[in-house]
Specification:
By secondary structure, the chain is of the alpha+beta class. 31% of the residues lie in helices and 31% in strands. β3 and β4 form a beta hairpin. α1 packs across α3.
């Protein structure tokens, strides 16, 4: 069961789990998502997604990243996070 950190009306922020990586890798490598988030051609390998996950676990305070889940179904529908260094929020909106 995924721990929920912040519950909203329709979706909640929960802990990003290792089992989420294949889906998030797929989303971030979709052309439209990459264009919207990175403003350039962007492609990562599945191993890079795992490296990001391991780095995220080590630096939770600097780059907290969350799974966005539907409240009713618990379905993993997106990724969101904060970049404290640059004072920015980032959101990978994927449905």
């Amino acid at each position: 069961m995924r721990p929920i950190i912040l519950k909203g009306e329709k979706v909640s922020l929960g802990v990003l789990l290792k089992e989420d990586l294949p889906k998030s890798w797929e989303w971030f490598n979709e052309r439209s998502t990459a264009r919207a988030l990175f403003s350039s051609a962007h492609f990562t390998l599945p191993e890079e997604e795992e490296e990001f996950y391991e780095e995220m676990k080590k630096n939770k305070d600097k780059m907290p990243t969350f799974a966005v889940v539907e409240n009713g179904s618990g379905k993993f529908v997106g990724v969101g996070g904060f970049n404290w260094v640059n004072c920015q929020a980032r959101w990978g909106e994927v449905f």
